[in-house]
């Protein structure tokens, strides 16, 4: 068995708003092994984004432990966390979070700007490649306001790929895409997963979950289901099955 | 993150908010420009005072009757008659630190040549006067000691007198003029000296032997002034003391009594005037410095706004791996870029204002390199100082809190 890249135990996250306390996560535990493709499902407000933010080292749990690659996140400094986010994690936000008035190419380049090991030419080359992978090779100079919602989402996906991450955390990365494009993206993720990248994918859509090897279902901050998917569908095959339409 | 990238980001942020940034810079621009212009005016007037006073003879020592606290811009000692020829002779004899000395008697009157009539002043002196005042001759020659002794009616005249009394351009040397109806033979013309700092026309003079002026024109038996020059500029203060000693004992002034005369060196004059103009410069620069401070506060304000507006951007930069120090540098460089650009524009504006003042207001100015260097350095420091706190605040944000900021 391969080693655990994510290991959480009794993870709780509470938000205090005045006198009220919102229990977004009520003590959840699970492991994700290297090379797994996990989908996290659950109704709106069940705590999926909260969980993913913690896994992405963007947020800290109220209690419980989170170990990434054997290291307790709690023990890491702000700078060490920044380096992990920069070099190990590709994060796709539910709300894209692109820099306004900045070209798609520069948006994708952003993570590499904070990596001094990557030269300017290398940075550009990798950003162009990532944009081509998500099918935006012809939109590199467009700013977010000149792109459709789906295109913006794909820029955000390209940005998460550009630093060759060890794991990708995607928060509804296909939420704004039509079936064809989302299958294309899923087949891209399956491809990356085959290359060994661990993927954790939050989604609402059950058919997306069939492309993953495991599904965790959240409800009101608790895990209610956690099952292996024995019949992983190939997104490439499903894509081929789709009726040929206006393309 | 590389400096070049940081500069690019800062440049972009500034360009995206051109008007706002320019308005913010205005404080710095005006501050720097006024510091430079004020210092240029201060330096300029100091230099011109020094130049005028030096042109009057920097070793010069003047001795006037009475306690003179009215400043040197007024004429000589008026009606006080405590200074007499014996004082002059005694000083000449005893003072070792003086190279030249002359008695001075002076008065006003009309210079007349035929139908040309001009009100001027006459100075009765001895031949050493020219060396003391550092005046040269344009033509002719100075009168001699013998002519002083015999109270000859010979005179030298300044350019202004020449222009007004000999308007036809004829050579005045050898001509006869009358001063208050006393005929004088013009034996020389003084070199042009122009106006001094106090606005006096130094060329509007007639110079004649003091014996002649004292007896024939003024009919007095005292002196208005004694002028001397110290051996060197450095000896001037000691020479002043020497002269004071001699006169005190000669006038039998007791320990407890005040002098009935005033001895001053040019050095003292220079420092008196320099210190007034220096004080003025300090005041002007203080005012200008305050506007620079206000400019700095403007930068701080705009950096706060910038950090607030871009909280989401900060969150994102952190989420993709930006460290606190990267964010700090980003905003600090933006602040410095604003202040330095403002400083640069301020220097240009300040130099422009100086040129304007010099040419259109005719004030003497002198741009000191140090004023440019200092105000520019102050700008950079202002940028760092006032940009630091907002930048620090931005860098301390939590990625997820910043991302969620609306
Ligand atoms: N910063 C916050 N402050 C207060 N409450 C919060 C905060 N973030 C999340 N919550 C609350 O925590 C709960 C879980 O939110 P979360 O965003 O994780 O839901 P989600 O499963 O991602 O939903 P969706 O599918 O709609 O994106 C919600 O009730 C939400 O109101
Ligand atoms: Mg969510």
Automatic annotation (TrEMBL), chain A:
The lineage of its organism: Bacteria, Pseudomonadati, Bacteroidota, Flavobacteriia, Flavobacteriales. SUPFAM superfamilies: P-loop containing nucleoside triphosphate hydrolases. Keywords: ATP-binding, Nucleotide-binding, Transport. It holds the Pfam family ABC_tran. Coiled coil: none annotated. SMART domains: AAA (SM00382). Belongs to the ABC transporter superfamily. Macrolide exporter (TC 3.A.1.122) family. This is Putative ABC transport system ATP-binding protein. GO terms for molecular function: ATP binding; ATP hydrolysis activity; transmembrane transporter activity. InterPro entries: AAA+_ATPase, ABC_transporter-like_ATP-bd, ABC_transporter-like_CS, ABC_transpr_LolD-like, MacB-like_ATP-bd, P-loop_NTPase. Residues 6-245 form the ABC transporter domain. Signal peptide: none annotated. It comes from Jejuia pallidilutea. GO terms for cellular component: membrane protein complex; plasma membrane.
TrEMBL record, chain B:
Pfam families: FtsX, MacB_PCD. Coiled coil: none annotated. Residues 286-398 form the ABC3 transporter permease C-terminal domain. Residues 21-245 form the MacB-like periplasmic core domain. It is found in: Cell membrane. The chain crosses the membrane at residues 21-41, 279-307, 328-357, 369-389. GO terms for cellular component: plasma membrane. One of its GO terms (molecular function) is transmembrane transporter activity. It is a multi-pass membrane protein. Its main location: membrane. Belongs to the ABC-4 integral membrane protein family. This is Putative ABC transport system permease protein. It comes from Jejuia pallidilutea.
